[in-house]
Design brief:
This protein folds into two domains: 2-43; 47-112, no CATH class. Helices cover 65% and strands 0% of the residues. It has five helices and no strands. The chain has helices at residues 2-16, 21-43, 48-66, 71-81, 88-92. Helix 1 (2-16) packs antiparallel against helix 2 (21-43) and helix 3 (48-66) packs across helix 4.
Amino acid sequence: MALGHIRKLYAIERRIKDLRDAERHRLRQAQRLPQLEAFKAWLFADTSQGAKASATCYSLIETAKANALEPSAYLHHVLKHIAEADTVETLEALLPWNVGLEPASKTVAQYR
């Protein structure tokens, strides 16, 4: 996860390195700060409960990707149905290989 954030920061710097100072500063503010905030939130999870919540979220996202699902659509599906899951079988139905979502598309999240 940390390497992913660092890679994104370096990619931003490579894209803006040849621009004038004012333009580079403006783009840094717009593009780097959100990445740095996400990295800081990940890096400094203040409590063990916060760290566990972050790890759960990252795990769901990466599992969706590994199963060729759009992560945001999968999270939407899980959050929509998790309250109804009161047995092992209904929880297992929420696993990415059991949901009926379409494979990931590079253009649009697939909400149902």
